[in-house]
Write a structure and sequence with these properties.
The chain has 346 residues and is of the alpha/beta class. The protein has 10 helices and 15 strands. The protein is globular and about 55 Å long.
C-alpha cells in the first residue's frame, strides 16, 4: 500500500483521522496550513508517526510534491463554520474551492488510480427533510428575518401554511445550501464529481453532521456550537442558546467520524454518505447536558438568530451503515461527558 495524504491533518477532525490511520499501520503524510483562524501555534497533539508538511493546498507545486507515492487522499482542509459576516466570502471560496480545485488538478495530472475521500457537510442540504400532513414531503422556503424576529422559528408548508414534521434526510435529497460555507461545500462536491467523471477516480463525499469532541478550537466564531458552548462554560459564562433551543441536529463524536474516514478510504463506495449518529438532539439538549457535565452556569435561551442557520437537519444513516459498514459507537451522553473535561485547542 502507498501513502495516505491527509490535508488539514493538524485540525480538529483531520488529526483524529491521522491517529486512526497510524493506529492501523498506514504510512501517513499531512499537508496543513496551520491557518491562524484555527491554530494559535503548532498543536501539541500531532502524531509523531506521521510526516508533516506545512503549507497551503492552494500551492500547486507544493501539492505536486506531497502527492509523490500517495494512492489515497483524505481531504479535510477547509475553512469551517458560518463565519462572522458576508465579508468572509472570498476567504471561504479561496480556501475551500480554489484549494480543492488545486488538489484535484494535481491529482488529474498524475493519471494514476487514486481514492479520494472529501470532508463534506450536512450544510449542503440547507433545511432538512419535512413532511406535511396534507401535502406529504415538502421543501420549505428559507426563513425570513420578519418571521425570525417574531419568534416564528419553525418553517411552514408553502401550500397550506401548516406546521411540518421534520424527518431524517437521506443522501438522495436535493442540496440547497443557504449560507456561504454551505455553498463552498456544495461546490467542493461538484468539483470532486467532475474530477471523478473525467478521470475515472474513485471519490466519496462524507457529509459530516455536527461533529464534536476533543481538540475542538476554543473561543472562535468559526467553531461549532459544542465548542462555543464549552468555551462559554470555561470562561464562567452561561451558554447562549439561540432561537428557542428546539432546533434539531445530529451530534456525532469526532472519533466516530475518523473511523468513517478510514472505512471510506478502504472502500469502493462513491458519492455522498451521511456521517452521523442517527440520533437527533436539540441544541438546548446539548447546552443543558454540557452545562451539567461541566458543572457550570445553566444555559440562557436568548431568542437570537442567525439568518444563515436552518431549523432542523438530521441524518438518515442507512447508506453509510449498509454500504460502508459504519455505525457510530460513542453515545451522546458519553461523548458530552468527555467534551466537558477535554482540553480545547488554543
Amino acid at each position: 500500500m502507498g501513502v495516505v495524504l491527509v490535508t488539514g491533518g493538524c485540525g480538529f477532525i483531520g488529526s483524529h483521522v491521522v491517529d486512526e490511520l497510524v493506529a492501523r499501520g498506514e504510512s501517513v503524510r499531512v499537508l496543513d496550513l496551520l491557518h491562524a483562524l484555527s491554530h494559535e501555534r503548532k498543536p501539541d497533539y500531532l502524531n509523531p508517526a506521521a510526516a508533516y508538511v506545512f503549507g497551503d493546498v492552494q500551492d500547486g507545486e507544493l501539492v505536486d510534491s506531497v502527492l509523490e507515492g500517495v494512492d489515497r487522499v483524505s481531504h479535510q482542509a477547509a475553512m469551517v463554520g458560518l463565519g462572522v459576516d458576508f465579508a468572509d466570502v472570498v476567504d471561504y471560496v479561496r480556501h475551500n474551492d480554489l484549494g480543492t480545485a488545486t488538489l484535484l488538478r494535481s491529482l488529474a495530472r498524475r493519471r494514476k488510480d487514486v481514492r479520494l475521500v472529501l470532508a463534506s457537510s450536512m450544510v449542503v442540504y440547507g433545511e432538512g427533510r419535512y413532511r406535511c400532513a396534507e401535502h406529504g414531503l415538502v421543501r420549505p422556503a428559507p426563513r425570513t428575518p420578519e418571521a425570525l424576529e417574531a419568534g416564528e422559528f419553525d418553517p411552514a408548508c408553502r401550500a397550506c401554511g401548516r406546521s411540518l414534521e421534520p424527518e431524517a434526510v437521506p443522501e438522495s435529497a436535493r442540496i440547497d445550501p443557504r449560507n456561504v460555507y454551505a455553498a463552498t461545500k456544495a461546490q467542493q462536491e461538484h468539483l470532486c464529481s467532475a474530477f471523478a467523471r473525467e478521470t475515472g477516480a474513485s471519490v466519496a463525499a462524507l457529509r459530516y453532521h455536527n461533529v464534536y469532541g476533543p481538540r475542538m478550537p476554543r473561543d472562535t466564531p468559526y467553531a461549532g456550537v459544542a465548542s462555543i458552548f464549552r468555551s462559554d462554560l470555561e470562561g464562567g459564562r452561561a451558554p447562549r442558546v439561540f432561537e428557542d433551543g428546539c432546533q434539531l441536529r445530529d451530534f456525532v463524536h469526532v472519533r466516530d467520524v475518523a473511523s468513517a474516514n478510514v472505512l471510506a478510504l478502504a472502500a469502493d463506495v462513491t458519492g455522498p454518505l451521511n456521517v452521523a449518529s442517527g440520533e437527533p438532539h436539540s441544541i438546548g439538549d446539548l447546552a443543558r447536558e454540557l452545562s451539567s457535565a461541566f458543572g457550570g452556569e445553566e444555559p440562557a435561551t436568548t431568542g437570537e438568530y442567525r439568518l444563515g442557520d436552518v431549523r432542523h437537519v438530521f441524518a438518515s444513516t442507512d447508506r453509510a451503515s449498509v454500504e460502508l459498514g459504519f455505525r457510530a459507537s460513542i453515545s451522546f451522553a458519553e461523548g458530552i461527558r468527555e467534551l466537558a473535561t477535554a482540553p480545547l485547542r488554543a
